[in-house]
Amino acid sequence: MKLVESIKESGGFLNRYTHESASCRCSMTFSVFLPPQATDGRVPALYWLSGLTCTDDNFRVKAGAQRYAAEHGIALIIPDTSPRGANVPDVPERYDLGQGAGFYVNATQEPWSTHYHLYDYVTAELPALVEQHLPLIPGVRSISGHSMGGHGALICALKNPGMYRSVSAFAPICHPTECGWGQGCFSAYLGDDKSLWEAYDATCLIRVGASIPEIFIDQGTADEFLLEGQLLPESLAAACQQAEVPLTLRMQAGYDHSYHFIATFIGEHIAWHAQAMA
Ligand SMILES: N[C@@H](CCC(=O)N[C@@H](CS)C(=O)NCC(=O)O)C(=O)O
Known about the structure:
alpha/beta, six-stranded mixed sheet, three-stranded parallel sheet, 10 helices, globular, binds glutathione, EC 3.1.2.12
């Protein structure tokens, strides 16, 4: 992997890397915040998955997370949301399909199946890469994300028991098989057989017994996509209650879907993950 930018922040370094991804078969860019504690030792890592339209840039410039990561001595690993490049299929007129909308699945359908393997990328290729090259404690990971990335964080944790010490999410797409965003991407990436979609749906995974110690979610009540029925936290809450999965779902009065909402609560999420990785 190649370091393309390094900026000192909060006593640590906000770095950007590019590498040739075997999973996505293209060059991928990701950001990493290394806290000051990484100068003389190895640190735990919190993976952050962003939402529709995002690159690795949105979280690093808008969430204000680096200050808290420095305080707690944890690294932030911030991947892109899809494969990229002129040879990678896209639908430029759509923000919710193609580049910027990888949905953290392994696509099986043409033309997406060559490059759109974000699930393998995030759960296997990227952790192996960063743990080999950066001062991270191998295997000590947590995961969080926003919207499409909140969905990504939930399914990565639910499908890989023990891989992450903790999982949280901001305004996650909780039941993608039942919302417009999810149905649009899953039909394109995974095909028409809806039973295959359920393997990438947090609510469905909990219904069929996926084991997870605890889930922590913040959701704004004035979130335009909550009101539009894209997020469906009530479906996840019902599944968790039925399966006796501990869920802390905080409905935050008046907050919208934006990074202003994330910036307000990211400190609490980072403190919670840091404790789980201590
Ligand atoms: N119409 C919106 C829909 C997409 C959207 O709200 N994306 C959220 C995640 S689902 C986001 O993080 N946008 C980028 C940002 O706020 O920096 C847009 O094009 O930005």
